[in-house]
Amino acid sequence: GESVGLHLPTLSVQEGDNSIINCAYSNSASDYFIWYKQESGKGPQFIIDIRSNMDKRQGQRVTVLLNKTVKHLSLQIAATQPGDSAVYFCAEGGGSSNTGKLIFGQGTTLQVKP
Amino acid sequence: NAGVTQTPKFRVLKTGQSMTLLCAQDMNHEYMYWYRQDPGMGLRLIHYSVGEGTTAKGEVPDGYNVSRLKKQNFLLGLESAAPSQTSVYFCASRRAGNYGYTFGSGTRLTVV
Q: Which of A101, A108, A109 should one mutate to test binding to chain B, selecting the residue with the greatest count of B CBs within 10 A?
């Protein structure tokens, strides 16, 4: 069945360093992938998405890389700040379904040390 | 402010009681979703709707029912609550043609 997984449950980085959060997916038919950030006690917040026909997409301080050959997705956060501390989820969607359903990974907790 | 509003934010139920969680969005989004979030299991889809008057089952629909009588509202019902339904419930909506969801702030439900 479909599954989206994250390689590490917790990532600890020093403030100012770059962070890389990884995600593996299994459905090669997925059309798009999304990264969400969830702060404690809040709902997930959209960060960035990428279509399956792209390899890289950049936002403000964030970059998402997609490697379809190995079904791997990563989120890079530049100059990590204390406000980046949160749980990060990858999600995949699309494929043969037009329902817009997303399948979420289990999440990686990012801890930023001052 | 525009967005997705969930009520209530917290609730404690006794086993066997029923309740309805309300999700309201004012962005005129066509698609709406109910997810539950449990520790170590990420977000799992319960039910969803692709438009007013339509609903469909997700990954974990047992024990839940939904209704979408109005485009802006998506209700999640628990007819007979069980301790296994203790969770944080998130509603989300999406505009047709967009990928990303807008999530509500969640409802924390405890069934004792």
A: A101
